[in-house]
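Entry 12.
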Amino acid sequence: MNEACRKAMEKLDAALAEVVASSEVDLLIKDPATDVRIVRNQETAIGYLCADAYRAISGADIAFVNGGGIRSDLKKGDITRRDILQVHPFGNMLSVCEATGREILDALEYSVHAWPAEFGGWLCPSGLRFEVHTYIDSGVKMDEAGMFAGIDGACRVRNVYIGDEPLDLDKTYTVAGPNYMLQSMGDGYTMFADNVFTQDSVMLDVQVLITYITEGLGGVIGHTYAEPQGRIVFVER
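Predicted 3D structure (tokens):
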């Protein structure tokens, strides 16, 4: 390694080691007891933190982050830029589209169709809550490429609320999320790609999360995120 490269690496390492925030709680992507990646099939505080960041920074009605895009824990104590980069290592960008209530319901149903199996497209929501009736076989259909192709049959997802209001299937809402999912149909989410985008790839996901924690939370992830918040309720019967 020549001198210029060495100095560049040192500068990068110093930048990534910068402490940008702190956390009063551990935010985990796996169940410590089973090693199951719960960020792909359960409520998680880290999933909600990331989704809340997208909604807060964008001003959208709701936000989704795919669980497969959340790759590392945030542990109690100091948080560095490197820690945030390890959470979101793929360089996805914040985008916002307009979507009908029907499209949102389709996305939620697709998110849970494989439960209890892990699914990288499991949606971590912000600004909404809903029930998953796990005893119902999802009617989600996929095409030969494994992309969402519609719903033919029953829905597991019931009683969806946007804020305090029931989801209106005919109403148009604004939805924030990573461009990977909303625009590029990542994880098979076909329902948003042709919609009107009011914000098109405006900020890196790493910066979205840093900005939310430093400005929205005053630099400290508090006990609000100690546990999941009941946005997804599993109903067995």
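Annotation: The longest strand covers residues 93-100. The first helix runs from residue 3 to 16.
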